[in-house]
Design a protein that fits this description.
The protein is mainly α. It is built from four helices and no strands. It is elongated.
Amino acid sequence: MTSAKRIIIATTMGLITGIICMLLASSGPEPMELGIKLSTILSRTLTGFMIGISALRLKWWLHGSVLGALGSIPMSLAILNDPSIMILTFVAGIIYGFLIELVTSVVFKAKQKPVAVV
C-alpha cells in the first residue's frame, strides 16, 4: 500500500507545479480565463496525485516523466488549434512530473512501496 506521506507530498508538489504552470501560462499579452487557470492547476495537481498513488515499478525519474506525460495528454489535446503550445504543454508535463517525483522520492525519500499481487 502506498504511504499517505508519499501521496500528500506528491499531490502538494502537483499543486505547486500547477500554480507555477498557470502563472507562466498567464504571463502572456492576452488575459487568461479563470476556468483555464483553474483547470491548469487542477491538471497538475491530479498529476501529482497520480504519481503519489501509482504502483508502476519504474525508476523514479522515469516514473515521474511517464506519469507527467500521461497527465498532460488532456491539457495538450484541449489546445489542438495551436500545435506549438500543445507540444510545449506536453513537454512541460514531462518536466513537472520529473520534478514532482524528484522532490517526493529523492528529497523527502517517500519511495514507492512494493505492491503485493494476489
